[in-house]
Amino acid sequence: MIFRQFFDNTSSTYTYLVSSGKGREALIIDPVLENINSYIDTLNELELRLVKVIDTHIHADHISGIGELRNKTKCVTLMGENAPADVVSMYVKDNEKIKIEKVELLTLYTPGHTDDSYSFLMNDRVFTGDTLLINGTGRTDFQNGNPYDQFHSLFERILKLPDDTYIYPAHDYQGNKVSTIGNEKNFNPRLQVSSAEEYAHIMNNLNLDSPKMMDVAVPKNSYPRMKFEEK
What we know:
The chain is α/β, with parallel strands linked by helices. The protein has helices at residues 36-45, 66-73, 147-157, 181-187, 196-203, 214-221; strands spanning 2-8, 13-19, 25-29, 49-54, 76-80, 90-92, 97-100, 103-109, 118-122, 125-129, 132-133, 136-137, 166-169, 179-180.
């Protein structure tokens, strides 16, 4: 299997490329617009054909690259059914399967960070977007976020996965690249709670500044946004 993890220094965003092998179909998760050329160079180097691209949710800290990737490659763009983005070709629901050649992802609806947040399970790893981070969790104070919903998404969905499941988030600000469910259960400070109320109290008192690009990124990544250009 081919697995590549890209990092955007400006927004601390992780993007993932997955394929079953050289010369086959590929899928990209959470692309950043400014890094499109890097993704395409990697696709060409490995002789891959990009057929699907996914955003885990409407991002507030960078402009998504899914529209531009669709314009350049004619790939199918996917997001969760609650995402207000007209660049999306296919909306997915909870517990659906996304398939490319010899690769399969299971969709997990994990609201809380935003109301359109999804995670994607692929065999021994889960792509958690901004829902579960390494040693943290995504903030819940904008874009219809809700700490009670996030508590449920974490403790009733993601943390029910096997302890040795690898976690690949959409962001990290400390240089971490990967964790596991077991590691986060034991050491993530925001998960050391005994109730949804306790978790909500923590999240409601973070007092974080808004993302620097929020005023630009959210409108660009939401409806109305750029349309697919027929060529």
